[in-house]
Structure formats: structure tokens, C-alpha cells
Amino acid sequence: MAHGQDSLHITVKKLFELAENNNRQLKLDAIRIQDAQAGIDVSKNHRLPDIDMAVTAGYLTDVGVIGMGTMKTGFYEMPHFSNSYVLQASYLLFSGGRVGRDIEISELRGRVAGLNYEKNKMEVKLLLVGYYLDLFRLLGQRDVYKSNIDQASMLLEKIDNRMRAGIVLRSDKIRSELLLEEMKLQLVKVSNRIRIINNAMVEILVLPEGTIIEPDTILPENNVTELALNTLQQVALQNQPELKINQLNTEMAKKRQQQIKAAYLPEASLYATNGLARPYVYDIPAKDIYANNLTVGVRLNYSLSGLYKNKARVDAATKGLQAATQYEQLAQENMRKAVFNAYTLWNEAGDQLSSEAKKLELATENYRRITNAYDQQVALITDITDASNQKLAAELQLTNAQAQRVMRYFELQKVTGQLN
Question: What is the annotated localization of this protein (predicted)?
């Protein structure tokens, strides 16, 4: 793959592979997927029983008693050192679906994280393919300028010979020199632009500093299967990660609404407590012995304050669901428009490419005829200058049109969710 110490010949396919393996944004998104998966595991842990253990040690004072019946009022001695060991366990039997909704929301967030990875992956790929095609276009322009500079230099030599023979004027030479200098300046600008884009790609792909990227001389295929526009829009609705994210956001809003409404329901749990404590203080005088108690039962909790506090949360969740639904529909509308625009521009780029190819053919033929006429001294230097400018412009426009056609193809692939 490498040519020379710092050069890297690369195809679009290899460009995408490097992006998936090296790009920092995609690595960050991969970490977010792992974080979302950890969140799912945390939510599932709420279904596991809670087990607690407590150990205490302390000092007890004498117990004071107010006489009732046969008991005398006063203080009674008791063991001053106390300690206890308590083991508690509880298992949630019913929570109105709050735990289940929490797990489902966490799973939906995990799916959103995965879709965000796919969405950002397509954006990174489209960005890189744009740079790649710019590099291809500019390298082509550089070759065009070099070729035209060579032709202009040869023409300048002919003019020098004719000046010495007294056939042409000094103004003809100046005109040719101006054209040559302008092309040299444009060559410098194109070369600098190549360096800038190359550096941007090196940074995005996390390649060694100083790597020179060499795009493939053959552009990738850019033919779209002959599908109707509405079919492409349906493909986008099914594949576009951004639309899927909006659908999941709507589903999450529904789950949140259900989760909040579950606060109106009671919560039931099974519990067990086993405690060992000394001294035994339920007798007077207290006895310095360990007492063991085992309790098993069902606990029922109901929040009465939730009857009036939860209404505002339910209203907010309902508004959130309505907003998510509207946003999903709006995103679908925008996506259909985006597919229409991308498809139209792709067709336009094909027409432009055909037109630019024909214009270059005509400009090349015109330049050849004018050059032959000048050699036969039946054409002026201004005619050659005009023909040269037309040929140069046609060559540059054709290179641009080739890159533009491929770029429009990848834009259509992205907007339909097929840029893999």
C-alpha cells in the first residue's frame, strides 16, 4: 500500500477502513456504546434482592423507670456494653412496572448509542470522501497546469525565434509571459491547497505526521440503481440512523410516561430480617444474654403524597411525548426533501459531466487548429491566448465535474442511510 517512506496510496474502500479503525470521534462513540451497555446492567440489578448486614457496638447507661403498678420509680443497673448483628434481605415483588420501564429505557439508550455511532460513521466517511475527491481534483488540476505551462513555454520559445526574425511584436511576447506567470501562480496555489487537504486527512485518520496521501487514479463507481425517487425515500426511512434515533426517542418518551404513572401504584416487597443482640433489654433487670429474632413478611408501601405531587410530572411527560412525536414526523418530512434534493443534484452532476467532456473536446480541437494556423502565420497570438485559456478552463472544469459527480453519489448514499 505504501509507496516510498511517507506516501500512502489509498482507495476509497481503504479510506473508509482507516476511518473506522483510527478516527477519534468513532472511538469515542464506541466507548459510549459500552457505557450504555453498562447502564443496562445497572438497571437490571434493580431486579436482584437487596441484602444488608449491620454490626454495632456501644455503651448503655442504666435504665430509668417510672413506676407503674408494682414497679418502683428509679434507675436499674444493666450491662453497659451492647452489640448486635443484623442481616436483612428484601426482594421487590411489584413496583407498578417502574423497574421494567427503567430497564427498557436503558436498552433504548443503548440502541441510540449504537445508531449515533452509525450516524457519525457516515458523517466522517462523507467528510473524508469530500477531502479525498478534493485531493483527486486538485492533483488533476496540478497536472493540467503543469501541462499547460509546458505548452506555454514552448510557445514562448517560438515567439522568441520570431522576434529575432522581426516577424512578431514585443507585445505578443509580453502577453504570452503574462499568461505563463498567471499559470505558475495558480500552480503554487493548487499545490498549497493540496498540502492543506492532505494534512486535514492525516489528522482525521490519525496517520503519522508527514504522510502524503495519494488517491487512486480511478474514481469509484457512482451509478445509482435505477430506482424511483419514492423508492429511494422509502429506503431512507428504513435505513437512516437519524430517523431511527427519533423513533427510539419517541418510544423512550412513552416509557418515561408509563414509568411516572406507575408512581400511583403501590410497591410490594418480600423481606426477611435476622438479628442477634445483647443485652436483652425487654426485662427488668436487663439480662446479659444474646437474643435472636427472625422476621419474615411482606411489606406494602404506598405514597399518598404522590397523589398530588405526581400530576405535574405526568403532564410534563405527556408534553415530552407529544414533542417527540412531532419531531419524528418533522424529521421524516425533512428526510424526504433531502433525498429529493440529493437525487436531483446527482442527476444534474451527470448532465454537467457530459457537457464538460464535450466542451473539452471542442476546446482541444479549437486550440489545435489555432496553433496550426499560428505556425502557418495566419493567426494572431491573441487567438492562441484565447484558445489556450478556453482549453485550460475546459480541462479544469472536467476534473471538477468528475469529482462532483462522485461526491453527489456519496451524498445520496448518506442521505438514504447506505454509506457503509
Answer: Cell outer membrane
Task: Specify the DSSP element, H or E, that contains 207.
Answer: none
| Per-residue model confidence (pLDDT) at position 383 | 80
Mean pLDDT on 379-388:
77
Q: Taking phi first (over 0 means left), then psi (-120 to 50 degrees means alpha), and beta for anything else, what does residue 209 get?
A: beta
Bridge partners (DSSP) listed for residue 81: 59
pTM: 0.80
Q: Which residues of 300-309 are buried (b: 16+ CB within 10 A; e: fewer)?
A: eeeeeeeeee
Instruction: State mean pLDDT over 304-329.
Output: 89
Pick the closest to residue 249 from 318, 316, 328, 315 (CA basis): 328
Q: What span, in angstroms and rounded, lies between the C-alpha atoms of 380 and 202?
A: 48
- For residues 339 and 416, the answer to whether their CB atoms sit within 8 Å is yes
Burial of 221 (0-12, 13-18, 19+ CB in 10 A): exposed
**pLDDT tens for each residue of 131-173:** 999 999 899 889 888 988 888 888 788 878 877 777 766 777 8
Spatial CA neighbour of 211 closest among 420, 8, 416: 8
Query: Which pLDDT does position 1 carry in this prediction?
Result: 40
- Coil/strand/helix, residue 210: coil
Q: How far apart are CA 88 and CA 202, in angstroms?
A: 59
Asked if residue 263 has pLDDT above 90, the reply is no
Give the CA diameter of the chain.
147
pLDDT tens digits, one per residue of 177-204: 888 898 899 999 999 999 999 999 999 9
Alpha carbons 111 and 99: distance in angstroms, whole number: 19
Q: Which of 135, 218, 158, 203 is nearest to 372 (CA)?
A: 158
Domains within the chain, CATH numbers bracketed: 7-48+95-266+302-415 (1.20.1600.10), 50-92+268-301 (no CATH)
| CA neighbor of 78 nearest in space, from 243, 289, 277 | 289
Q: Which residue has the cell 474514481?
A: 219
